[in-house]
Design a protein that fits this description.
- Belongs to the NAD(P)-dependent epimerase/dehydratase family. dTDP-glucose dehydratase subfamily.
- With 352 residues, the chain is an alpha/beta fold.
- The chain is 43% helix and 16% strand.
- It has a 7-stranded parallel β-sheet, sandwiched between helices. It has a 3-stranded mixed β-sheet with strand order 7-9-11.
- Strand 1, helix 1 and strand 2 form a beta-alpha-beta unit.
- It is globular, with a radius of gyration of 20 Å.
- Bound molecules: nicotinamide-adenine-dinucleotide and thymidine-5'-diphosphate.
- Thymidine-5'-diphosphate binds next to helix 6 and strand 8.
């Protein structure tokens, strides 16, 4: 069946993998990628599919309600997959309002526009909200995992804004009958990851012989999932998830930050022909992040048992692929670290 799907945030890290998967796997779908192209949005993530006949890019801001109304007027969307967000915890500490605007106000605008444009005829429609495990807060007991029924307890401005957006999505499902589905995923890693986040930042700094800033004692634990496995899970949930349900996504792959940084140093020593232990000398312990969540760990059994999804890659293999991608894509890295691509977009769209 032919479908028209709006993917928001499709120029970002995860969104670009979701857009690629949908455009290539479903040639009969029309995919519209709506992205504001903030510092984190990069159309170079999608050059391989930008000319596909079933793909359209639209530059726009989800905080702008009249723009959204116009977009939904121009396209008869069957579904929305909503990934657009401000996504970096450290930035949320220095500028929380940007997170309130995009993650909360932007999400409510999108819900409202979908509801109004679908005129309460929701048959065949779906609003899929992509969220994070950080809404559940921080785990302290090693036996505990986040499940779909874990109470929300967000601890950072980022996770608070994502939690608020999740609540609004469920409220639109409950109040207006909007056919919603949600997922909460653990930390992603892989190609196109913006180098302000732990793994790409460390790869970049190891390569350029810069200090490797480990927050606090490096004892915080994150549960890492290869980004393409997240995109596969989104595909599964979009097509087969039950309306109104939430699915947790994760790889049962917990790592203490310091152990992960050591592993990356070992992989990079090999790749760069350095003697073992060279890169680890760059590790520098720095002041901890304010309110730093200790541990995230997802129980993904519901998604695995009910919808048959499972991660495709072991972590060491995924990490090696990721390092190889960054080493092979120096120009991409150079552009995003120099800000050159942002200047290019600004001037390109200024002239339109
Ligand atoms: P990202 O920061 O790499 O990309 C976000 C994208 O949204 C960018 O392309 C940006 O230009 C766009 N955007 C930002 N504000 C916008 C606005 N007002 N209007 C339109 N577009 C806007 O983020 P990501 O890591 O790819 O995360 C995508 C989604 O997945 C987010 O909702 C995030 O909360 C969620 N998530 C991320 C992770 C992770 O580990 N990165 C894990 C779980 C869930
Ligand atoms: P990050 O990639 O920012 O993801 P999140 O905070 O959403 O989990 O950080 C992952 C972990 O790595 C987190 O515990 C903070 C830590 N970290 C560092 O120790 N140094 C860094 O330079 C960064 C960016 C993160």
């Amino acid at each position: 069946m032919s479908k028209k799907i709006l993917i928001t945030g499709g120029a970002g890290f995860i969104g670009s993998h979701v857009v690629r998967l949908f455009v290539t796997k479903y040639p009969d779908y029309q995919v519209v990628n709506l992205d504001k192209l903030t510092y984190a949005g990069n159309l170079a993530n999608l050059t391989d599919i930008e000319d596909a006949p079933n793909y359209t890019f639209v530059k726009g801001d989800i905080t702008d309600a009249s723009f959204l109304e116009q977009l939904f007027g121009e396209h008869a969307f069957d579904g929305v997959i909503h990934l657009a967000a401000e996504s970096h915890v450290d930035r949320s500490i220095s500028d929380p309002m940007a997170f309130v605007m995009t993650n909360v106000v932007g999400t409510v605008n999108l819900l409202n526009t979908a509801k109004n444009s679908w005129k309460s005829d929701f048959s065949g429609k779906r609003f899929y909200h992509v969220s994070t495990d950080e809404v559940y807060g921080s785990l302290h007991n090693p036996e505990d995992f986040f499940t779909e029924t874990t109470p929300y307890d967000p601890q950072s401005p980022y996770s608070a804004s994502k939690a608020a957006s999740d609540h609004f999505v469920r409220a639109y499902g409950n109040t207006y009958g909007l056919p919603i589905v949600l997922s909460n995923c653990s930390n992603n890693y892989g190609p196109n990851h913006f180098p302000e986040k732990l793994i790409p930042l460390m790869i970049h700094n190891i390569q350029t012989n810069k200090p490797l800033p480990v927050y606090g004692k490096g004892e915080n634990v994150r549960d890492w999932l290869y980004v393409i496995d997240h995109a596969r899970a989104i595909d599964t949930i979009y097509h087969r998830g039950k309306t109104g349900e939430t699915y947790n996504i994760g790889g049962f792959n917990e790592w203490k930050n310091i152990d992960l940084v050591h592993l990356l140093c070992r992989i990079m020593d090999q790749k760069l022909g350095r003697s073992e232990g060279t890169s680890a000398q760059l590790i520098t312990y720095v002041t901890d992040r304010a309110g730093h969540d200790l541990r995230y760990a997802i129980d993904a059994h519901k998604l695995m048992n009910e919808l048959g999804w499972e991660p495709s890659l072991q972590f060491e293999e995924g990490l090696e692929k990721t390092v190889d991608w960054f080493l092979a894509n120096q120009e991409w890295l150079e552009n995003v670290t120099s800000g050159a691509y942002q200047k290019y977009y600004d001037s390109m769209y200024e002239n339109r």
